[in-house]
Amino acid sequence: MNRSSPETQQTRFDQADTRLRRDEGIAGALRGFVDRARSGDLGMLPVIFGLLLISVVFTSINPVFIAPNNLVNLLFDAAAVGLIALGVVCVLLLGEIDLSIGSMSGLASAIVGVLWVNSGMPLPIGIGAALATGVLMGCVYGFLLNRFGMPSFVSTLAGLLALLGFQLYILGPSGSINLPYASPLVRFGQILIMPDWFSYTVAIVPGILIVLSGLRTIRQRAAANLSPGSLSVVLAKAGVLTAALLLAAYYLNQGRGVPWMFGLFVLLVMIMHYAFTRTKWGRSMFAVGGNAEAARRSGINVKRIRLSAFILCSTFAAAGGVLAAARLASSSQQAGAGDVNLNAIAAAVIGGTSLFGGRGSAWSALLGVLVIQAISNGLTLLNLSSSLRYMITGGVLAIAVIVDSLARQSRASHGRA
Amino acid sequence: MPPVNEQDPPQGELLLRLRGISKTFGAVTALSDIELDVHAGEVVALVGDNGAGKSTLVKILAGVHQPTTGTIEFGGRQVTVDNPRKALELGIATVFQDLALCENLDVVANLFLGHELSPLRLDEVQMEVRAWKLLQELAARIPSVREPVASLSGGQRQTVAIARSLLLDPKVIMLDEPTAALGVAQTAEVLNLIERVRARGHGVILISHNMEDVRAVADRIVVLRLGRNAGVFGGEASHEELVTAITGARENAVSRRRDRGIEATGGEQP
Question: Tell me, what's the ipTM?
């Protein structure tokens, strides 16, 4: 199986075992992917399948669904809930939960409205106070879990009610504050669009990064006498991704274009993805979610990891609340109420982050929120009442959790975590 | 490092020296006046019945419990092992019975857990190379270090756990019942591994219920009974001698069977 080039004459460290199948090139990568999927390591498959299904169904009922401007609106709507879902991924990775994210986002939008509009403080102070409240609440949840062993399910359920009460309290009897339409915050949430050239540039960047880091990995691994992996796989990955992103950018630019707000969300997803996969902190998160006792014995400060996860979750929820306020141009009693909580958790789970801890990725927030928003958007186009929308969204969440559980059982029986 | 001849007294430098270790939990005396020496390149087996105090002694050395009285000398210096981290810093690594591996992470991630290279930009390539080198040194048969630990067999998991404890290059490594849950072939694999760890010059403390395993690899066998030293044997000690020391009774099922055997053959027991 060795190729004839001289540097592969010596057996690579990771290919010394003859029992191991060599997966080389694109065919090998595909074969490995199919194997993983069959054993229950589904990754992004259910989401992509779901998105395609949703698009086909809704478009066949109402062609407006697929129109560029509708998709632009969909992305505007997705950013706020997506940001909340990104925080949910952090706590789900530990096998914990935060049920107060909806209230937290509502409180954050109320804080911005009260401080900025009612009290006349500068906007950054309002946003800063909202985010600081998120940090504080994360600290409280982390402290309750670390100090008293209070299950996050209960502490955040209590937080849900308490935060909602505080939101109603600071909004006062009027219950609603309108944010000025001309302000940068509302323009960011409703109007601001990337210039065409910029959206195309942004669409190319991930492909370039994949090729560069792929080349670097291949060089390093070859130098370290490990099987280097194949350049063709890297190029294929980068090519497919770049083509898809360019196509998406082109299509959106047929309408209004790519919202800055969505760009901000994707940027944060990418930063969290790096943090989860390439830093010691991220590795510790997965370790604590997989086996907290093992992590503790390895010298990982489990309490600090838990605290960091809850802080991130509440802070992202607060940031999502600010974006939601910008999107709606108002801070009201309804902000963060209703289905926000469930939508954010559902997005993370639908995207492939396990409720049982130790499995997931930052991308699940992005993909999951697209599914959730697509369903919500499609049902709105059908003029369905919110009662039906709730039922259908609930059903989709149930299906997602069933898929997660089945995949987990399948992984267990195939000897994968 | 040549393999230590079982008949000879241990040659390596004295690493660990316990004198007069006692531990009481309330009114219960779990250990009293325990002595234990561990040299470099030596496998010391710690055997004893349930409740003999093996686990308590391991936990004292691992820094989980503190001894009530007694001294621990490590490398010629008297030390206190206040917590697990201190034990690791001294160079005492412990592989607990439940292994404590993260099944959702791959072998490399488990080996380096808590000690990753370059925390802000994990150096996966270097970690993988070091993982392979360590596993090769131990002649461990792990097909791929990029598979999650969940896909490994019991023996392979034990191997990963032992390899992880070696990563920080400890002087003494304690193995708590490493073969308890393993089949025949896997047990042999782990016993081979213990010999290789010894050949690397580490001192090994092996806790086991299984007399066969103990006699297969141990240079010295320390028997505990009801929290006290009940004898130190060479690796060549017979099964009967060990059982007698462990149970504290000359009269037991093993000795009776032996006696029956002698009567039946009319031969003489050496």
Answer: 0.87
Tokens linked to A48? 């992509």
> Taking CB atoms and an 8 Å cutoff, what residues of chain A touch B129?
13, 224-226
Question: Which of the 8 DSSP states describes residue B9?
Answer: P
β-pair partners for A330: A178
A 285-314 → B contacts, CB under 8 A: 286-287, 289-291, 293-295, 297-300
Q: What is the pTM of this model?
A: 0.87
Burial of A228 from C-beta contacts in 10 A (0-12 / 13-18 / 19+): middle
Instruction: Say whether A283 and B116 touch across the interface (CB within 8 A).
Output: yes
CA B245/CA B52 separation, integer angstroms: 12
CB A194 within 8 A of CB A261: no
Best mutation target, B64, B86, B105, B138, to test chain A (most A CBs within 10 A): B105
The CATH number fitting domain B14-237, selected from 3.40.50.300, 3.50.50.60, 3.30.450.20, 1.10.760.10: 3.40.50.300
Per-residue pLDDT of chain A (417 residues; tens, 9 = 90+): 344 444 444 677 877 776 777 676 778 788 878 887 777 777 677 788 888 999 999 999 999 999 999 999 999 999 999 999 999 999 999 999 999 999 999 999 999 999 999 999 999 999 999 999 999 999 999 999 999 999 999 999 999 999 999 999 999 888 899 999 999 999 999 999 999 999 999 999 999 999 999 999 999 999 988 888 888 999 999 999 999 999 999 999 999 999 999 999 999 999 999 999 999 999 999 999 999 988 988 888 999 999 999 999 999 999 999 999 999 999 998 888 878 988 999 899 888 898 889 999 999 999 999 999 999 899 989 888 888 888 888 888 888 888 878 887 887 777 665
The nearest CA of chain B is from the CA of A118 a distance in Å of: 42
How far apart are alpha carbons B161 and B97 in whole angstroms? 10
CA distance A369 to chain B (A): 25
A417 and B115: CB-CB below 8 Å?
no
CATH 3.40.50.300 residue ranges of chain B are: 14-237
Query: Alpha helix locations (H) across B37-174?
Result: 54-62, 84-90, 107-111, 124-137, 154-166
Q: Which residues of A touch B136 (CB under 8 A)?
A: 13, 16
Secondary structure of chain A: what % helix, strand, coil (to 5)?
Answer: 75, 0, 25
Q: Which of A14, A276, A414 to mutate to test the interface with B (most CBs of B within 10 A)?
A: A14
Closest partner residue to B100 among A20, A291, A358, by Cβ? A291
Q: Which helix (H) or strand (E) holds A245?
A: helix A231-254
- Across the interface, of A13, A221, A290, the residue whose CB is closest to B102 is A290
Residue that the structure tokens 């393993």 belong to: B182
The CA distance from A201 to A199, in Å, is 5
Give the chain B residue nearest A36 (alpha carbons): B147
